[in-house]
Amino acid sequence: MIEIISAGIAPGLALLSYFYLRDQYESEPVYLVLRSFIFGALLVFPIMFIQYVLEVEKVFTSEFLYTFIAVGFLEEFFKWFVLFFTIYQHVQFNEHYDGIVYGVAVSLGFATLENIIYLFANGVEYALGRAILPVSSHALFGVIMGYYLGKGKFSIIKNRTKWIVLSCSIPILLHTVYDSILLNYFNWKYIMVPFMLFLWWFALHKAKKARIKIFDSRLP
Question: Where are the bilayer-spanning segments (predicted)?
Answer without folding.
Answer: 6-21, 33-54, 66-88, 100-121, 127-149, 161-181, 187-204
